[in-house]
Design goal:
This protein is of the alpha+beta class and about 55 residues long. It has a domain at about 20-54. The protein has helices spanning about 1-10, 25, and strands at about 30-35, 40-45, 50-54. It has a three-stranded antiparallel beta sheet with strand order 1-2-3. Strand 2 (about 40-45) and strand 3 (about 50-54) form a beta hairpin. The chain is elongated and about 45 Å long. The termini are far apart.
Length: about 55
Amino acid sequence: MRWALEHHLGILDRDPEPLPYDPSRAAELIGAYAIDAMTLTIAADETGLNLAVA
């Protein structure tokens, strides 16, 4: 795919670089998200986000 993008469209596709952990942005995601089949709970600590599935 990368070869085709570069040689046919001139687009250089690179691996994404991780962003540094930002507690204020992480706070926007914290909470419980429920659907019929499961509940996802997102929590945060000083090192990153944690995901629990029930």
